[in-house]
Write a structure and sequence with these properties.
Elements: H1 9-12, H2 14-27, H3 34-48, H4 51-63, H5 68-73, H6 85-98, H7 106-116, H8 119-141
């Protein structure tokens, strides 16, 4: 079996991809800032080693006027002042939900989120993280080929 045909979701369960796409469409009108959505999706994709998604989300962030400096420093976001305290809280939440079992204190991280975001924003942010993890795993399972 070729790498390109290892996972063929479009043929076997097209409704699943349609449902995932519908969730993604919701994000275009959600209260989470578009640049933060890009940063979270890109950071999670970096962690998950999804080259396809890293490329896509970097390009989308640039199209929405994200700076090169912030994109270049996202991998070391804790060690730079290029990101706001609110963005750092969101990135910490994203990393904790992506790397399970790393000992992150989710109550503490959620408390930090509550300082900067409404509960609705936190809920959307969490769903954005869940969805990009899903997309990353699907892409990686298919060696970043199309489905």
């Amino acid at each position: 079996m070729s790498r390109a045909t290892r996972v063929t979701l479009v043929k076997t369960v097209p409704d699943a991809l349609g449902a995932f796409g519908g969730i993604e469409e919701m994000f275009s009108t959600c209260p989470v800032d578009p640049l933060l959505r890009h940063l979270v999706k890109l950071r999670v994709s970096q962690i998950n080693g999804c080259a396809y998604c890293v490329n896509m989300h970097t390009g989308e962030a640039r199209e929405d006027n994200e700076t090169t400096a912030r994109l270049d420093h996202l991998v070391v976001w804790r060690n730079t002042d290029l990101f706001s305290v609110a963005e750092k809280a969101a990135l910490a939440w994203a990393e904790a939900l992506t790397v399970q079992g790393n000992g992150a204190d989710l109550d503490l991280l959620h408390g930090e989120l509550k300082i900067h975001f409404s509960q609705e924003e936190i809920d959307y942010l969490t769903l954005i993280i869940v969805m990009i993890n899903t997309w990353n795993r699907l892409q990686v399972s298919n060696h970043n080929a199309t489905f």
